[in-house]
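An instance as discussed:

___
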Amino acid sequence: MTAATQHKTFSLARVFAIASNTLLELVRLKVFYFLLCFALLFIAVSLATSTLTFQEQFHSMKSMALGGMSMFTLLLAVLSTAMIIPKDIEERTLYTILAKPVPRFEYLLGKLGGVLAMLLVAMALMIPMLVLVLYVKEQSSLAAASRSLAPGPDRDAALEQIRLAAFSADLIPGLIIIYLKAAVCASLTLLVSTFATSSIFTIIVSCMVIICGYVQHFAREHALGAVAVGTVSVMNFLVKGVTILAMLMIPDLWAFDILDDATGALPLDLFAQTASLGGVYIAAYFLIGYLIFAGKEL
């Protein structure tokens, strides 16, 4: 088999090797540990909800903790992904890898795989802290309810409600959606880095697009609503066309903000719809990034 044939043949082993090296590089970054400590501290601070009822306390704690995890993973996804390609170009590692030969598709897929693995490691480190905080709050709430209520059916029902409010299977879909949102931001940042000239430029552009992603929902409703109530004209068609184009280019991150649903009963259809949307965004941004990267002169 010739070198040219080897270059064209997809190799999962090469992708895994690139992803593994990328993961090792990312977990050694100081920003990883700084943001991780910040997220763990934020989760621990969510214990300070003593002025609320038992159910409100757990709802507030979960909202704060999941919000902190979401913010941490999003920042980590953008900052870490923005560094990988410029760093490889600066250290000339990219030229060595592509000359082996390794196809650019495998290189880019391996880099994205390493980032997604790093986000998974971060989630795996934060979830035990979340479980610990909920367990501590559950035990203190059970003790307080046992002291304040007389033995009987009412106390047993109250204790059972506290246990149900502390831990429920609805937390799992919420954590998955948080991971998917960070993965979408990572794939978006990887796309920007394929044509960006520096890490700073990649971070700035990615953050701007992410901010637009959070307001896209409201802008889309306003634009399409204005078209619906307005008269039929060329301007209305232009507004609708621009709105649809923005929907395709900018991720609707508001659709991933289901933290309130994650702290209660999260419908299965909503979870499936949001997870599918995340998968489409990740695949689309990666493929667009690959097309740009494949035609880029290095």
Remarks:
- The chain has twelve helices and no strands.
- Residues 104-148 form the longest helix (45 residues).
- Residues 3-294 form one domain.
